[in-house]
Amino acid sequence: MKRAVQSVLALAAFTLICRLFPLFHVVSLKQATAEQVAATFNATQFAENFWTNQLPAATGKAVKAEVLVPAIQADPAAAKKNFARRVGLSEGYFYFVSGHGRVLAVSDDEIALAVTDGGTNAEVTLQAGLVFGNALRDGTGLLNASDYPNSQDFNDISAALNHIVETRVLPKLHEQAKVGASISFTGCAEVDDEAVDLKPLKVVPIQNAMER
Amino acid sequence: MPMRSALKKLQPLIALVVMLVAMTLLSDKFLTIANQRNILLQISVNLCLSIGMTLIILTGGIDLSVGAILAFAGAFAAGLLKHGLVLKYFGVVLQFTPFGAMVAGIVVGLGLGLFNGMAITRFKLPPFVATLGMLSIARGLTLLWTGGFPVTDLGPQFGFIGAGFWLGVPMAVWISAALVILFYVVSKHTTLGRYIYAVGGNERATAFSGINVDRIKLWVYALGGALAAVAGLLVTARLDAADPKAGLGYELDSIAAVVIGGTSLSGGRGSILGTVLGCLIIGVLNNGLFLLDVSPFWQQVVKGFVILAAVAADKLGARKE
User: Fold this and answer.
1) Is A119 part of any domain?
2) Do the chains contact at A21 and B99, CB–CB below 8 Å?
3) Chains A and B: how many Cβ contacts under 8 Å?
4) Are strands A110-114 and A124-127 parallel, antiparallel or unpaired?
5) In-domain check, residue A54
6) Which chain B residues are within 8 Å of A26, Cβ to Cβ?
């Protein structure tokens, strides 16, 4: 008898707790699927919005190539301190750069430019093949990883931005870049290994235009 | 003899005090409030596991599956919270609340612990073998449930138990402290507690005196599983992610804490408070070696020697008695 009373009391307490703190809510499969789709982060849409609305307004903040390149050539550490952007604890860093230069060489993968007056060596290369890495996402300083709790979402943004560059910027770049031509550009450079990435500065272009 | 016995009981406490003094002298960062809070936070998971392990070892058993149960319970709760439970036949989804997901995780841990207990009591498998099997089962279930990928972004309500603070103290510390008090009372002041000591002290005599030894063991392994699940929830909440590889090797840290705390591997002797000291010793050791910039590889070696010394001291003490 005592045991039965104890069991009933335990059951009543459990029911009360579950009433106060529900364990789950029952939702129809259709509604749950719709909610899940709505909640799923759409990196392509986000990148499109970023590309159209946020990025153009920020290009004015890019450091001029005719300032940055001589600074890197003179003292890479000082240039890094003055113009670079670092993300988290990573050793790598980014430059958001704009300028114009004379085309020295053209290949499927890159366009070599001289950006300083009288420069005869390739000082900047615009990446013109498949785009990898996070230069565009992290280089402008407009996007912050901590705003994206799901790191996969943040990675997807990078991939979507790289895809936009590959499909919209690079075809135009290949069309315009002829040896001897002058072109203007804005882009981001990711520097992981200074010996490789600074000589010349490897820039992923986000804008480019033919100059007369 | 009473003096020697008292000294033996105080061994873990003396070791902890010696380590605290040594670390304070060797590192000026050791005694800061932030570091002390960090040590307590770091040991809270091991403490949850070790409370259950103490009860199991007190009965003369062992549980090698607590790390794997930790991982599965954490992943199970995270999965329910994130994706719910789809019941296609009924055309509905059970969307779990953070509280519901936690309850489900603990129930799963309890169930796996019960399975261990059943294997040991009904099929008479040695605890080492039964729980080794469960280690593999629970790891496999974790990979099946998660698809091998972490379950992330669980929300602030769930994260509160692992990363939140109350009165300036991490919630994980409050939870582990509450469990210490609860199971100290259970082990010292309840019939179940006395039976646990009796089973480990002399199983045959306990059985002959009319106590259902199998039922005690079943309870103890179930509690071990439930406590491992609580540890799994703390880890998952703290990281805001359920990692399928969580808890790898945690069973060894847990056994080490219990043994260093003075609980005999042959059962019948030991206490929850000793285990708390054992966890603190391991926590202080890990933290101190880290502050002294000792390589993690050497940390493993040092920890191994500390465990050997603790077991050797236990054996020598038992021989003299």
Assistant:
1) yes
2) yes
3) 51
4) antiparallel
5) yes
6) 92-95
The residue of chain A with its CA nearest to that of B155 is A149
| Structure confidence at residue A58 as a pLDDT band (50, 70, 90) | confident
Contacts of B84 in chain A (CB under 8 A): 24, 27, 32
> pTM for the complete prediction?
0.74
For residue A128, the domain's CATH number is 2.40.50.420
Task: Compute the average pLDDT of residues B171-181.
Answer: 96
Burial of A85 (0-12, 13-18, 19+ CB in 10 A): middle
Q: d(Cα A74, Cα A68) in Å, to the nearest integer?
A: 10
pLDDT for A140 equals 87
Q: How large is the average pLDDT for residues B66-95?
A: 94
Confidence at A3, pLDDT banded by 50, 70, 90? confident
- Strands, DSSP E only, in chain A? 24-28, 63-64, 85-86, 93-106, 110-114, 124-127, 182-191, 201-211
What is the rounded average pLDDT for all residues in chain A? 87
Is there a contact between A26 and B100 if contact means CB atoms under 8 Å apart?
no
Length of chain B: 321
pLDDT number for residue B318: 65
| Domain-embedded: residue A32 | no
Residue A146 lies in domain: 41-211
**For position B258, what pLDDT does the model report?**
94
The answer as to CATH 1.10.3470 being correct for domain B14-320 is yes
Q: Which residues in chain B have their CB less than 8 angstroms from residue A32's CB?
A: 84, 86, 93, 95
Asked whether residue A9 is assigned to any structural domain, the reply reads no
What percentage of chain A exceeds 70 in pLDDT? 97
Q: What is the DSSP letter of B99?
A: H
Complex confidence, ipTM:
0.78
Contact assignment for B95 to A32 by CB distance below 8 Å: yes
Of B80, B95, B240, the CB nearest to A27: B95
CB proximity A29 to B under 8 Å:
yes
